[in-house]
Amino acid sequence: MELGIFLAVFAIAMLLGMPIAFAMIIGTVAYAVLAQIDLGFLTLQMFAGLDSFLLLAIPLFILTSEVMDRSGVATRIYDFAHVLVGRLPGGMAHVDVVNSVIFSGMSGSALADVGGIGRMGYMSMVKNGYAAPFSAAVVVSSSVIGPLIPPSIPMVVLAMVSGISIQRLFFGGAVPGLLVAVAMFVYIHLRFRRTHVPSGESVWSFPALAAAVANAFLPLLTPVVLLGGIWFGVVTITEAAGLAVSYALLLGLVVYRTLGPAEMWASLKSVFHACGPILILLPAAKVFGFVLTLEQVPDLFTQTVLAITDNPWLILLAVNLLFLVAGLFSDPTVNIMLFVPIVLPLAQSIGMDPVQFGVMVVFNCMIGLVTPPVGAALFAIIGLDRKRLSLESLVRAMLPFYAMLLGLLVLIALVPALSTALPNALFDK
Question: Which of 53, 138, 271, 346 lies 20 to 30 angstroms, CA to CA, from 391?
């Protein structure tokens, strides 16, 4: 009875338009009153949701990307990518993909990619004659790479709610992230190989490449410093995030001297805006998950599904459909915190590697971020150029990219080695 009322109150609050974090808390309070659980104990559980050293990595990774963007470091990375691949057919689109790969080693956020270096890539593509919807589709699709190639904010959240090793998750997403980049390279090349390359794109030369490498060398070291420290065990994930921030500040304040008080204040405000919802969701999800665990919902869910079918392929299909459908209507962070504790035991029951499961879920959630009707990345890019972009035109341009992303999701779900080979090679099992 208590579980039914708990879920009913949560659902009603959601239908009334209440933010999901508050719906979780209200449902939990209703359950506590009926089950005669001390509300003070629930308060302690909520604070326990924030009592994690790993959680500190999230604002630090966001601050790194903000400092890189506002100090002009992102421009140096863009210029390097432009010299590297700008001469290829569809060169400006290739440049955006390369930028996303490099920038993903600093931010770990798809929306930071779209709003930061993605904005620069979109404007450059449109300026050089590319259709606005196609340009936006490239930026949005390449932003999926950000949370896959380490560091990754969604994977930090997933590690906190699941207990899966964050180091292995980080490196588990690297190969799938590069696969997205390769697939986009192939599609862009095939699309533009028979057409004239728009004017204004770079002509490759060794002196130009050498100059671009020299100009971007120090920023390009950021992912090396961050991931190298994690790999060699010198720093934890949170310490690596602090190291990345320190390095970004060193470049902006001392080396290039392009980061002033105004830029620093704007960076800090962006961090607060980005982290606020997460810091509310985490304690809400903690008490919500406490009730689900108390009522043995994950075990009941696993037993119910296995009673219907024990076919691993059907179970794998059901798990992916759950996250794909949830991604259409809800934020990735919410979906990770709400469904991962329930579905993880089911995935383990069919022998799925936890790292493969985590990478698959994050990739699923990133697809949700770029699909209507709620896809935040779509609206982020539309907000940059409302005169030339509409949701309808952008979704039409996204269709081949949706097909590509779904195909890669199937590959990640069916081939464990894509997610597990690298962390198995780098870390002890």
Answer: 271
Task: Find all residues with CB under 8 Å of 243, minimum gap 6, and list them.
Answer: 225, 226, 229, 235
Neighbours of 255 (CB within 10 A): 13
| pLDDT at residue number 196 | 55
Question: For 106, which DSSP code?
Answer: T
pTM: 0.87
Handedness of CA 87, 89, 91, 92 (dihedral sign): positive
* pLDDT given at position 179: 96
Give residue-wise pLDDT tens across range 97-140: 998 888 877 777 787 788 777 888 898 888 888 899 999 999 99
pLDDT for the residue numbered 133? 94
Q: What is the 3-state secondary structure (H, E, C) of 3-53?
A: HHHHHHHHHHHHHCCCCHHHHHHHHHHHHHHHHCCCHHHHHHHHHHCCCCH
Cα–Cα dist 120/286, whole Å: 38
- Dig out the tokens for 375 from the structure: 């896809």
Burial annotation 13-47 (CB, 10 A radius, 16+ → b, else e): bbeeeeebbebbbbbbbbbbeeeebeeeebeebbe
Asked if 337 and 157 touch (Cβ cutoff 8 Å), the reply is yes
The per-residue pLDDT for 185 is 94
Map residue 404 onto helix, strand or coil.
Answer: helix
Looking at residue 327, what is its pLDDT?
A: 87
Low-confidence ranges of the chain (pLDDT < 70): 49, 195-204, 429
C-alpha span between 263 and 257 (Å, rounded): 11
Output the CA torsion sign for 51, 53, 59, 61.
Answer: negative
Using CA atoms, how far residue 147 sits from 5, 142, 204, 384, in Å, is 36, 11, 30, 22
Contact 28, 6 (CB under 8 A): yes
Q: Virtual CA dihedral for 143, 149, 154, 159, nearest 10 degrees? A: 170
Q: Is 1 helix (H, G, I), strand (E, B) or coil?
A: coil
Considering Cα of 400, then 404, then 405, then 407, what sign does the dihedral take? positive
Half-sphere exposure of 206 (CA within 13 A, CB side): 0
- Cβ atoms within 10 A of the Cβ of 180, count? 26
Q: How many CB atoms lie within 10 A of CB 269?
A: 11
Structure token pair of residue 239: 């310490």
Position 200 scores a pLDDT of 46
Q: Is 413 in contact with 316 (CB distance < 8 Å)?
A: yes
Give the type of residue at 179.
L
**pLDDT at position 352:** 94
Instruction: Return d(Cα 70, Cα 73) in angstroms, integer.
Output: 8
